[in-house]
Amino acid sequence: MKVNRQQITENLRYLQMLSKQYPTIQAASTEIINLQAILNLPKGTEHFMSDLHGEYEAFRHILNNASGSIREKIDILYSNTLPAYDRSVLATLIYYPERKLEEIKRTVTDMEEWYRINLNRLIEVCRLVASKYTRSKVRKALPADYAYIIDELLHTNYDAINKEKYYANIISTIIDIDQADNFIIALSATIKRLVVDHLHIVGDIFDRGPRADIVMDSLMEHHSVDIQWGNHDILWMGAAAGSRCCIANVLNNSITYNNLEVIETGYGISLRPLALFAKEKYSSVDTKCFFPKNPNEISYRRKDIELAAMMHKAIAVILFKLEGQAILRNPQFQMNDRLLLDKINYEKKTIVIDGKEHKLKDCIFPTVDKEHPYDLTEEELELMEQLRFSFQRSEKLQRHVRFLFAKGGLYKCFNSNLLFHGCIPMNPDGSLMEFDTPDAGFLSGKAFMDYAENWARRGYYSPNGTPERQFGKDLMWFLWCGRHSPLFGRERITTFERLLIDDKTVWVEAKNAYYTCLKTGTDCMKLLKGFGLTGKYSHIINGHVPVRSKEGENPVKADGKLIVIDGGFCRAYQPTTGIAGYTLIYNSYGIRITSHEPFAGVNDAIKNNRDILSTTNVFETADSRIKVEQTDSGQEIKQNIADLKLLLAAYTLGIINEKHR
């Protein structure tokens, strides 16, 4: 081993700290051998999901089945020995062990025999998914209560006659002492834990669907996850930070889709102040433009829908005022065309947008002062203060948002792939779009993404009442809907037009040139290079814009370098896309994309052993099986090995003394 004394001297303090963890030559040598062996294992499986939009049942099911990976493992083991029905039952047992066990007990007469057969099957599946990891890593993934027993069973050698009865007795004892149910639950959790090494959520957890808070609870329980913020996520993050603009947008979205359960039940935020204000100010005016979009209106009482419309109109007017204030505070956002309240002609019931006059369906806004249209009334100020207090005092919402800040960002470079939700804003000629910033000049590409992420964090963590917090909150609102924002990716948001103008030509939200400029692999590689990614297997992975699968659109674009995985997870988008979402699996063999049909629900899945019908397309296969050595964690391991070798040299030269106990 070549020794570099100068290197040891330069890193002596660090090596002395490292010696506390590896106090002897033997300890350091053993760790080097262990790390070197890990480098030659197959890379762990990455699972990519995007645009969940609160659809917690479908999300949890795809999380449970790892986009078909668990059923694939079952088929590898049992396709020649078990009929398809039995394999489906085993898969459902792994996905939903507690509820499937309840159902099985109602139909199976000899539970002891059933336990014996299925415990052995689960152990076989668990052994297969654990085979690509070190025994140490598997042991760390095991549930504490059964770690020793599962570890023993996973490393069974059935050819060892001396231990055959030992292992059989373990299974028998588990059944005899009524621990079979708990053990099945533990094994199922272990399989789901090991089949996916890391989960990527490429944005938009919130809005549209019923319970984003349940999705967030599941993510917080996941062993390894990162999140690329979507425009709907940053909106809720801004609301949690106390941005009145973001709070008004959250409420406007939730009422529009008749989805208040997540606010009131999920996060415990009372909407009573808004309801009282709306009834006082809007009960005697027309609100039909503000009726919520709800495909199941029959399940709601008429007066509830009318109240929702009043609340919607009340918060929409407040929203237009607050957004106007944000635009006037931040001229660099270049959004003056979104200042619409002062463009209304109340006598003619018209508005001028882009130089063209349009008829308004409604312009009876009792709280708007025509001379000062962007000022809130005293009652509106009081209402927004009450709502701000409620959002900032929701313990669960704050916990979820802190998790989003801890595990998330605007983009992520991971194993040579670039992940982000919306776009890297571009001009029509393919150049990067520049954004004017008040403190850093004009920025584009990675520099602007880093700048915006930093200010979003400051908008949440800076002290209340400071200019830093105010600008950070405003920037979070800009990321939600600002002109060509990297999360929004459109020229303008047309909330006002969609509510109040029949002419759909003004509803258009023109997409950023990013979505048309990246046509070839070469185009993508130029963009990837700006983020330091130049590898042969580098890709851009994003969501945000639903892929219209039913019209033949392919989610794999630009010679396979651009992958769009928003396929309509949200039910509201499924008529447009024709499917219920795309997910991506990247394992040691390559990348495959899976399209999913709509999920009929957990009850149907358990009762009928029905999985989500999915179609998988393997679109890139590695030249040879990808090893840990070729991943980001592999680079960290190599650095650790280099540090340990330096420590060995320090021991050998007597620069650092071994610490034998």
Low-confidence blocks of residues: none
Overall, the morphology is globular
How much is the average pLDDT? 91
Helix proportion range: 40-55%
User: In what range is the share of β-strand residues?
Assistant: 5-15%
Compute the separation of the termini in Å. Answer: 27 Å
Radius of gyration from the alpha-carbon trace, in angstroms: 28 Å
Q: Main sheet: which strands, in order across?
A: 7-3-2-1-15-16-17
Total of DSSP H or I helical runs spanning 4+ residues: 28
| Main sheet makeup | 7 strands, mixed
Number of strands: 17
Class of secondary structure makeup:
alpha/beta
Task: Describe this protein's structure.
The chain is of the alpha/beta class. Helices cover 50% and strands 10% of the residues. The chain has 28 helices and 17 strands. The strands form four sheets. A seven-stranded mixed beta sheet has the order 7-3-2-1-15-16-17. The protein has a five-stranded mixed beta sheet with strand order 8-9-12-14-13, covered by helices on one side. Strands 4-5-6 form a three-stranded antiparallel beta sheet, with no helix packed on it. A hairpin with a 2-residue loop joins strand 8 and strand 9. The longest helix is centred in the middle third of the chain and has 28 residues. The two termini are 27 Å apart. The relative contact order is 0.15. The model has no long low-confidence stretch (mean pLDDT 91).
